[in-house]
Write a structure and sequence with these properties.
Elements (H helix, E strand, L loop, with lengths): L3 E2 L10 E10 L4 E12 L9 E4 L3 E6 L2 E6 L4 E6 H5 L3 E10 L4 E8 L3 E7 L8 E7 L11 E4 L3 E7 L4 E6 L8 E5 L21
Antiparallel strand pairs: 1-12, 2-3, 4-5, 5-6, 6-7, 8-9, 9-10, 10-11, 12-13, 13-14, 14-15
Length: 205
């Protein structure tokens, strides 16, 4: 089964992420914006590293080191510091996804104690229980651009070390403790960092 990567680099200089809920009108290939509202703000840091994932009924919005849960009409349900959420000190640079295969949210965040925090919601309702772990990083970690989460029906793959190209593979079912195995990817395979285009002209794509 193919591995779906949800890695988004939000290059934003505003303090907030504007989230729009949209429906596609297929007959005319147009997008109609039904609602527009602010997501989690920068939480006192810059850049905000804004990120969001949308499930069936909820939106999980990330900004630096805070996690916000909203309904699809923009009502803020909760906004929590990631350190309080995990129970240990975190340092931002997070990514959040909605895994439509298992119907769960998942996110990871840099910890301040040479580790990465990872969490998966119990269901598609992010206001309910979450399963959480702290993954020690074997070496240096290169921040927002070098981390991310991939998934398929079998497992989550969390990029924990951009320099050594290492990943934590976490079974997606019957794994409430989020047991994982650390692997090193083959040469040339990376998540979160594009392969240089050596033949591209200066300023070109």
């Amino acid at each position: 089964m193919p591995l779906h990567f949800r890695l988004h680099r939000a290059v934003l200089f505003s303090a907030v992420l504007a989230i729009s809920c949209c429906w596609v009108i297929q007959a005319h290939s147009q997008i109609t914006v039904q609602a527009s509202f602010d997501g989690q703000g920068a939480a006192g840091f810059a850049p905000p590293d804004a990120h969001a994932a949308i499930g069936p009924n909820y939106i999980v919005s990330w900004g630096n080191n805070r996690l916000m849960i909203l309904s699809k009409d923009g009502t803020v349900i909760s906004s929590q510091d990631a350190s309080d959420f995990f129970g240990f000190s975190t340092g931002g640079d997070g990514h959040v996804i909605y895994d439509e295969v298992s119907g769960r949210f998942a996110f990871e965040v840099l910890s301040t104690n040479a580790s990465v925090g990872f969490a998966v919601s119990d269901t598609s309702d992010p206001t309910g229980p979450w399963h959480k772990i702290n993954i020690p990083v074997p070496g240096l970690w290169d921040g927002y651009g070098g981390n991310g989460v991939g998934y398929n029906a079998d497992a989550y793959v969390v990029h924990v070390n951009g320099f050594n190209n290492q990943y934590a593979v976490i079974a997606a079912s019957n794994n409430v403790n989020l047991a994982y195995s650390l692997i090193t990817a083959p040469a040339g395979v990376r998540i979160g960092r594009p392969t240089p285009m050596t033949t591209a002209t200066t300023g070109g794509p």
